[in-house]
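Hey, sorry for the delay on this. The queue was backed up all week. Below are the sequences that define the complex (chains, strands and the ligand SMILES where applicable).
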Amino acid sequence: MSVISRPEVAHLARLARIDMTDDELDRMAGQLDAVLEAVKQVAAAVTDDVPATSHPLPLRNVTRPDVVRPGLTAEEALAAAPEVEDGRFRVPMILGEDA
Amino acid sequence: MPFEEAVERFDPVMGLEVHVELSTVTKMFSGAPTEFGAEPNTQVDPVSLGLPGALPVLNAKALESAIRIGLALNCTIATECRFARKNYFYPDMPKNFQTSQYDEPIAFDGWLDVEVPASEDGTGEAFTYRVQIERAHMEEDTGKSSHVGGATGRIHGAEYSLVDYNRAGIPLIEIVTRPLTGAGRRAPEVAKAYVATLRDLLRGLDVSDVRMEQGSMRCDVNLSLRDSPEAPLGTRSETKNVNSLRSVERAVRYEVGRQAALLSAGGRVVQETRHWHEDTGLTTSGREKSDAEDYRYFPEPDLVPIAPDPAWVEELRATLPEPPAARRRRLQAEWGFSDLELRDVVNAGALDLVEATVAAGCPAAAARKWWTGEIARRANAEGIELASSPVTPQQVAELQALVDAGTLNDRLARTALEGVLAGEGSPQQVVQARGLAVVSDEGALTAAVDAAIAANPGVADKIRAGKVQAAGALIGAVMKEMRGQADAARVRELVLERVAAG
Amino acid sequence: MSGAGDLTRWDAARIADALRAGVVSSVEVTQAHLDRIAAVDGDAGGGVHAFLHVAAEQALAAAAAVDADRARGAELGPLAGVPIGVKDVLTTRGMPTTCGSRILEGWVPPYDATVVRQLRAAGLVVVGKTNMDEFAMGSTTEHSAFGPTRNPWDLERIPGGSGGGSAAALAAFEVPLTVGSDTGGSIRQPAAVTGTVGVKPTYGGVSRYGLVAMASSLDQAGPCGRTVLDTALLHEVMAGHDPYDSTSLPGEVPALAAAAREGARGGLAGVRVGVVRELGGEGYQAGVRARFDEAVALLTEAGADVVEVSCPNLVHALPAYYLIMPSEASSNLAKYDGMRYGLRVVPGGDGVTAEQVMAATRAAGFGEEVKRRIILGTYALSAGYYDAYYGSAQKVRTLVQRDFAAAFGQVDVLVSPTAPTTAYRLGEKLDDPLAMYAGDVATIPANLAGIPGMSLPVGLAEEDGLPVGLQVLAPVREDARLYRVGAALEALLVQRWGGPLLERVPELAVTRTGAGA
Ligand SMILES: [Mg+2]
Ligand SMILES: [Zn+2]
């Protein structure tokens, strides 16, 4: 009984925006299944009363004053862009909108 | 289906999500500037471009504003909260995740009392609706894409897009209501009144310039219908970026009608985001909220938790301005306005303007007439919000002072306003430049009166015979002669005087 | 200059003294190392291949500037004029930064990482960018898109990873100092298998601003050198609070070089050392265990109280790490989409959408190991699995921290072998990710807990004559203890060996004559 199925891997690849060939999917599904088999034990290692740690150190309330810091010029910002058109990043057509 | 019929058949339930851009000078997580309308990609740094290696640091002013907004909305302020990453791919989002808050918002469980004015058509009373606030959380704005090619320059049919990241990372507060129930046929008005009240509240807090037309305040309208208030909630649609008070009301009306038609035809409402079209007053289907939409939220490891010192929160509470409803009641009393008069002022979005004009020395009644009358009319014609009108409260007060001093009559005052709006300077300057002042030279006036009498002996006889109302003809002739720049009352006195004397 | 070749054998402290004394110039030292790089580094096809980019002109210019400042009698840092290599995971203004990935090939950052800014400000001479596993994902440097780095002890073997380039450059005498980054052992394991020294500082002790993220809550940049003192001197340059990094520790930088000098002089009387039962024994190569046990015996001779301590939850550290790291990485690597910088691949056909270009770009731009971790992390974070995987892993992290807290209640430092094996052959574990991951078992716990760790060489394994590393761990903010204990042990070992271990590294074939820049 495998932990993760090939269709699941295909779905994840879509979520992660990575095109994969059928061969890649097969290979990836096999490897991920082995890895997940090895790591799934963590669920059994802990109990509900154990708090989760998301930060290694207990820092709190780190902020900066609302003061402008030197940034980048438009030239610097666009220097590495694959395509530029009148001061903006040119990108292929976008489907659907989100905000 | 017509709105009236729809609300007979169904019970509308609304949920409003309002995004507010804070007026900080730098972004939420970096020191890049936030100037509106700057050249594209000039308000950026490695953080707002999501460059490899860049790290976020929270803007202290944005945190303070978030807490003050939470307090003004009667929310509980979190004793500890975290940021979370909302993961999804979109070209105007530089990191392909939005740094937001998920299960630990900075503020939650609040409410806002909204005074819903009596309906225009007089079919509904004014009443107060308490909007329950679920949460207010901190997040960052995205960049702006303009779509090139295709019919409307809108996203559909576009060939490619151009992205400007100046807006990326601008601090946002997202304010989410609990489902608004029980509004019934008044739902559209409640929605509009809520957004208007929220706008006034935020303006009062001085945390945002809340310019809906500039997108610094944006509203998403969730709406669903159910058979009765007892029935479970129906499937909702989410109409995005409804960006004017009027549109909020129209969008709710439209969705109620659209969904009612679907349901009564035995169809089902699809859970989806819809786009509002200001021009047509319609919403159209956007992305369907497929189950594939999995944002994979997790605690933002590059930012540390926020635990506001309770003492500081209390200090901030002390900085809150008077709540809008209380303020309106106070001003109505001070100005002696009727409920109807105040409603007109509020609906015109003129409350602050009238207050400022009165503060500049103008009688309240006159200030109201100007802002809800002539200036509102012209703003409407221009299609701009009253607050964006080029004339200032100071200038309106000056204009009224000239009227009260008898320097201008109403007609001349409107001409002077025209000049001010046209950018010809202060009312005083316009009066000078256009030579608008009422003629107060008795000699010239008397001469004109005598001339009129001489030209119309018959009329003079009628007046002497006691037909005082006949004086109108002579007064008209004199005003015409003076090109309107005379005080009609004074002209009348002179006419009667000279006729009697002659 | 005659003897310039010898200069590359000098450690950083000696070079710095010579520069101060005016015996050599920074330009001479820099040129000597550039020549050495040109001679032995080779390329993807052969040689050490520790460098992805060598910036000869910029380096010589920087060196000349330091010499000029010195001539003017300007106030200079202790390492001013010393050449250094920087792992290609740190942004360098005007110098390519690829993270060993096709997706960033040719990207020249418009800004310096805070660490790089500190190096330049201290007068260190950045000669180039060192090779690494793509986005620091790997333990062999074979996952670099630009070809593997080879271990100077045996060019058929891995130099460790992900920072194999930074470690190999030291072992090959191409530079006396390098900067690395350590998310699960990427500084310490390469140090162990190349016979060099590497330190993962306390999390937050060194700024992460400009350190291209793999797993934000685990990543930490750190110093690499051939001696404990050199490493301490570099650590002091890199450490300190950075307002551009929210997770940067406030407060003073501890005196690390002083701790190293003290350790080298005095013994370890009264120092309590704990041997971690769960990190050793079973599954560790015999030669590794033998060298480790000898080193522990030396510590006892030097006056340390050595006891065995148990951290039972460390057995869950590896699985927890391989959930937390990919989860954070899947999100951190989402930005590479071909829209703003780096590679863009446009699939054929018309009406191509941004979504399709992103998917094609990421498919072509990322290597297999990176894709594997992105998919794994996407899975661990997705609705329905979050609690069982990511959530549980974060709880294991708490347990690991508690174990260390308890252990440091009994002892001052903990020790273990750095890696279970010596350098294995290139390609040996390429198709078995699990086997490769297992090599991180001893280094990962420190990253989960945020504590500092050092690896230093303790000899060569009997069976293969390859270097073995010992790991020292200390409590948060107690990095100085690593240097004191490390320097003491180093002194005893060098005495026993009759010279540094690296004197035994085989002479490398010259692949090109040192034409220099
Ligand atoms: Mg929303
Ligand atoms: Zn939002």
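The pocket of magnesium ion (ligand 1) is lined by residues B 17, 174 (CB under 6 Å).

I'll add it to the shared folder too.

S.
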